Amino acid sequence: MLNGKTIMINEQEIRKSLNQELNRINKQSLETATAVMSADEFVRVLQGEAIFENCSDGILIADARQIIIKINRGFSRICGYTPEEITGKNVSILKSGHHEKLFYDKIIDSLEHDGQWRGEIWNRRKNGEVYLQNILIIAIHGKDKKLESYIAIYGAVIEHIGENSVPRSGIYYDTLTGLPNRILLHERLTFQINHAKRKNQMIAVLLLDLNRFKLINDTLGYAAGDTLLQTVASRLKSCLREVDIVFRLGDDEFAVILEDVSQQQDAARVAKRILSICSLPFQLSEKEIYITLSIGISTYPSDGEVIDEILKNAEAAMLRAKEFGINNYQHYKPAMNSKAFEQLTLEHSLRKAIRENEFIVYYQPLIDLKSGKMIGSEALVRWNSRELGMIQPGQFIPIAEETGLILLLGEFVLRTACQQTRDWQMKYNRPLTISVNLSARQFQQQDLVSTINSAIVNSSLDPQSLDLEITESIGMKNPELTLRTLNELKAMGIRISIDDFGTGYSSLSYLKKFPINTIKIDRSFVSDIHRDPNDAAITRAIIAMAHSLNLKVIAEGVETQEHADFLITQNCELVQGFFYSKPICAEDFEKNFLDKNR
What we know:
CATH class of the largest domain: Alpha Beta
Distance between the termini: 97 Å
Number of helices: 24
Shape: elongated
Oligomer: single chain
Helix content: 40-55%
Radius of gyration: 35 Å
Strand content: 15-25%
Largest sheet: 8 strands, mixed, barrel
CATH architecture of the largest domain: Alpha-Beta Barrel
Number of domains: 3
């Protein structure tokens, strides 16, 4: 019986009501009848030829084995089959091939537990055309509660497509890869969780992200990027069992549901298989391309019992995998979510802080080693949060870089530092330089040169007073682009420094081509130069190399007299560090270094 209930009503009244509607507009949907009569009564009504044949909705009756017993004219009109052609065939003859096994399992599950299923199905007509349609399916049971037959009522056609096409509808499927999308992920995960709960089984969800996919789109074009995604989708499906499902969630993100896994290691094996097959080269635009993936794994019920929790934990694991490097997978651990929550809170606060001007520029003096005089400073950003207090750059700079907020933050530091330095030059009538760091994200800006020029013009600062610092790792990522950008900045009169020298992977052939003025020795080499022979040797070599290229040297992290003495013997020109001063606010910088030397 429908929903386990039988509502006793007069069959003649049902016939009369349905016939009145049929005669009026000939468009009566039999769904209304199912809500007011028992299943047995409904079957008896259908045997009346006037009701069965004249209904504009398609009606199909199949036995318990899903063999088609009877269809009406409405069904023939919709699907193209005559009763002689389709009677005795299995209902699978109507399958479009655009639903996976789990979709039909979900229907059977609903029929077993609820007595009916209602939804949208992609079916195939006799001529091969695939179409999307609303369908109601009812399970008919006899008095002994034994399944006797199914009745399917075919409603309005929503959409139809060609024989070999992928459904255009964005409701359930990704049009590029043909994979089910985020909506079906939620639907099928709901079904899987309910099924796993009844069967006391475990399921696993894998979230996958292609690393640096945007670079492929930018360099090879969107057509190549689309081909890559289609090939990745194909490779992912090849790694799975028939019962497992892969989804495309958008852009470069995919998901996999693994049904009935016995232990976490089963999911790990699938993740390893995916990483292995996707590490093989892809042929795009006559080029051989390699990609890397980050995979996060969460399982039901150990990592969550509801959809949102399982997906959130899989995402936390995926982000953790990204932190560990390329081609990595991670199982979810509770600590990941607390870290993700902290980062989310910090990101929210960071956005608010930019709007409410909570950032301050601090200045660390730059000292001429031989004379001991301050000749300029380096601008360093600090965040004085009204809610969280003073936050160190190491906590918020990586998040700002990742979210793109570093662009706003970097421009604020640049403009503030240029204006402050110009104000000091005017007030104290002395030359001063200002060093400003450029992040990797800033250096990729298309309008970087114009942004810098605007800061100089607006502050009236002499370009030769500005020293822009880039790390050597930034310079080596795209040497040709770096060279082009640095030449533009150099033509403006701006000075260029390579920061943290010795910590990256430098190419000396490119280094000698870069129009740089200064090399900054990283503090990691300076801190132990007085007691570690290796650090002392590296520092000597860097200074000697720089001087041979006619470059000046700045040593960072000078904290003791011993550090200063060693660097003097090596003819290092400039130093900065806590031995002279930690970074301080503009007011203290004036007081300690400008007012005293008037």
